[in-house]
Design goal:
The structure holds three protein chains of three kinds. Chain A has eleven helices and no strands. Chain A is mainly alpha-helical. Chain C contains one helix and three strands; from the N terminus they run ββαβ. The chains are: A mainly alpha, B mainly alpha, C alpha+beta. The structure holds fe (ii) ion (FE2) (2 copies).
Chain lengths: 274, 311, 93
């Protein structure tokens, strides 16, 4: 049989049965004492961060400095994409009114309706995630800042009253710890490698540091960052913070462009089955 | 005691004849080494250049599930290139050298990747037909006579099955979608069918190296044998999908117990091989830019490693 | 110029098994080699533990290619079979 032949066993899929379902056995009802709208909003923040940064990281595919880095950046993009899918789906369950309405009979699932049919003014990601990739130094620096913060955020979610969010955090924190280590390693390498790489990483840090306050990181996160900076022999740049308002759905042109591209095929076929 | 070259050659021949593998430290005829380097390098380059036609769609994949599948698939191709470059390096060349030869046009890659991908259906068609043809080519190579090459192929074939399945599944899903989507699938199959058949290389009569490669156990089937097998496998899959393969001469021949089919346009094949395909220049320029843009990163990492060693 | 050195990668597929040679990669140093090995060779949950070693640091028997005494077992790095099954559905094998 053809379908057996080509589609029979799940075992060969990259996302097949060998892989644990992070939500297996988790109670998915939204607890009574949680405000569903607030939960949805929070899931969208974390989900949009992951989706937008994943989109940026995947732009490196076939363009990285070497094959090993190409594969590593794709892994990180895939991790974040997986987190985004769980979080967008959770937002839709918590508060269905956040999901854009589509033409009757559209088969588009909620996670895709959220990803492909919202306008830029409905996205809640922080500004840092939407900025264009720049060079490898900028990509690494952003990944460092973002994953140090996000790891701490996820760790604080392990005991969240919403069991789904806690389960997403439990899975994500292992991924994020690796992203942080990878980024920190490269950050130090570039900062101490050649004069050229040091110049580039300092430029990247100076540019991105303005967007750090938008993450609103607790003090212990800055301690981790300072350790990496010390190993890299760099100090916190003196720059005026940018007015990052991504959480309030205010964005740069870069997000508009990113979404226009990302959403183009899905929007051309609102009744399409993929 | 000195061993003469004829003795070594005899030992080499006996190893091949027994069906044993040749390993990197074994003596081997220079021509065998050269042929292997050429074949493995060309194969590795194909994996790497092959990231581009589909990679182009990662940013626009129409669902998050498809985005994840496509990114994982294209990432696999980077892995395949990496495994094959590594196998090639055991023959005394380096990835740097091989990359230089790719970028300078001294070594080739599969012509299929010089065709454009104007439609999202092409992601499905490439998985189904292009990865499908690659599997036909590659499964026999798991038993190729050079150990590292065979082992790389085993790993690659295992991953390729995911590629073909995701492509076929995308097309099946699209065929259940809108009329527009069904038309996209057919249009894409129409464009890729003949180039996919060309992936098996020129007809046996025009493939002068085949005989020696088969004697050495580097190749295990002729181009025409593999092409026939591919057609026979694909026809029922096309029927199940509900698409027409664009070949009026395609029909079952009960005498041969195989399909008869038309002749690919070999003039087009040679034109694309020799650089006149629709995307040859673009593919190499993309690769060259990535390589050049990454130079400062690779250098920085080496400098940092030296610094660490000095401490 | 500055080509990264070649590393050999060994993966323990699951507890109770030996580390098995799975392939090679390039990395500037040991730490990144380990990270690369994780990304390249355990993308599908294939391993619980990884070893990396610089290819140039491996001592192998039959150091001379022209040594007539080579046996199939004479090569420490490359002789290990990799234990990946060919999927059942792949035709004609
Ligand atoms: Fe491949
Ligand atoms: Fe493939």
């Amino acid at each position: 049989m053809i379908s057996d032949d080509l589609l029979g066993s799940e075992a060969h899929w990259a996302f097949g049965t060998d892989f644990e379902d992070p939500l297996a056995g988790v109670d998915t009802t939204v607890p009574d004492d949680i405000d569903p709208a607030a939960l949805a909003r929070y899931c969208l923040m974390l989900g949009d961060d992951a989706l937008v940064l994943s989109q940026r990281l995947s732009e490196w595919c076939s363009r990285a400095p070497d094959l090993e880095e190409d594969i590593a950046l794709a892994n990180i993009a895939l991790d974040l994409l997986g987190e985004a899918r769980l979080l967008l789906a959770r937002a839709a369950v918590a508060d269905p009114s956040v999901v854009p309405s589509l033409p009757d009979g559209s088969p588009v699932p909620a996670e895709d309706a959220l990803a492909f049919f919202r306008s830029p003014a409905e996205f809640r990601n922080v500004t840092m995630t939407e900025l264009p990739n720049g060079d490898f130094a900028e990509t690494i620096t952003r990944l460092l800042l973002f994953s140090v913060w996000r790891l701490a955020e996820f760790e604080s979610l392990l005991t969240h009253p919403d069991a789904v969010l806690a389960a997403v955090a439990a899975k994500g924190r292992k991924e994020l710890a690796y992203h942080r280590d990878f980024a920190a390693r490269w950050f130090v390498t570039l900062a101490r490698g050649t004069a050229e790489s040091r110049r580039r990483v300092l430029t990247a840090l100076a540019g991105l540091w303005a967007f750090w306050p938008e993450l609103d990181a607790p003090a212990d996160v800055e301690v981790v960052l300072d350790q990496v900076f010390a190993a890299a022999d760099v100090s916190r740049p003196e720059v005026t913070p940018a007015r990052g308002l991504g959480r309030e759905c205010v964005h740069t042109e870069a997000l508009t462009d990113l979404l226009a591209e990302m959403q183009s095929v899905a929007r051309a076929h609102p009744r399409g089955l993929w | 005691m000195t061993v003469t070259e004829p003795q070594l050659a005899e030992h080499f021949g006996a190893t091949i004849a027994r069906g044993d593998r040749i390993e990197p430290r074994d003596w081997m005829p220079e021509a065998y080494r050269r042929t292997l380097i050429r074949q493995i390098a060309q194969h590795a380059h194909s994996e790497i250049i092959g990231m581009q036609p589909e990679g182009d769609w990662i940013s626009r994949a129409p669902s998050l599930r498809r985005k994840a599948i496509l990114l994982a698939k294209v990432q696999d191709e980077a892995g395949h290139g990496l495994y094959l470059y590594s196998a090639c390096e055991t023959l005394g060349t380096s990835r740097r050298e091989l990359t230089d030869k790719l970028l300078s046009g001294k070594q080739k890659y599969s012509s299929i990747f010089n065709y454009p991908t104007p439609s999202y259906a092409d992601v499905g068609t490439i998985g189904w037909l292009v990865d499908g043809a690659a599997i036909c080519n590659q499964v026999p190579l798991c038993r190729t006579s050079f150990g590292p090459y065979g082992r790389a192929m085993i790993r690659i074939c295992k991953e390729e099955s995911f590629h073909q399945r995701q492509g076929y599944e995308l097309l099946m899903t699209m065929m259940r979608g809108t009329d527009e989507q069904r038309a996209m699938v057919q249009e894409s199959v129409d464009r890729f069918w003949w180039p996919a058949l060309m992936m098996f290389g020129p007809p046996d009569g025009a493939s002068p190296n085949t005989e020696q490669s088969m004697a050495w156990g580097i190749k295990r089937n002729t181009n025409d044998e593999l092409r026939q097998k591919f057609v026979d496998m694909t026809v029922p899959q096309a029927r199940a999908l509900g698409v027409t393969l664009p070949d009026p001469q395609l029909r079952w021949n009960s005498e041969r117990q195989a399909h008869d089919f038309g002749e690919p346009d070999w003039d087009e094949f040679w034109a694309v091989v020799n650089g006149a395909g629709p995307c040859n220049a673009e593919r190499l320029a993309h690769r060259r830019k990535a390589h050049d843009d990454g130079a400062w990163v690779r250098e920085a990492a080496v400098a940092f490693a030296r610094l660490e060693e000095a401490l | 110029m500055s080509e990264w050195p070649l590393y050999e990668v060994f993966v323990r597929g699951k507890r109770g098994l030996n580390h098995v040679h799975v392939g090679s990669l390039h990395a500037p140093d040991d730490k990144l080699a380990l990270m690369h090995a994780r990304d390249v060779y355990t993308r599908r949950n294939e391993g619980v533990s990884i070893w990396v070693v610089r290819a140039s640091d491996i001592t192998a028997s039959s150091p001379d290619e022209k040594d007539p005494m080579f046996a199939p077992s004479g090569d420490k790095v490359y002789r290990h079979p990799t234990f990946y099954d060919i999927p059942a559905h792949v035709p004609h094998l």
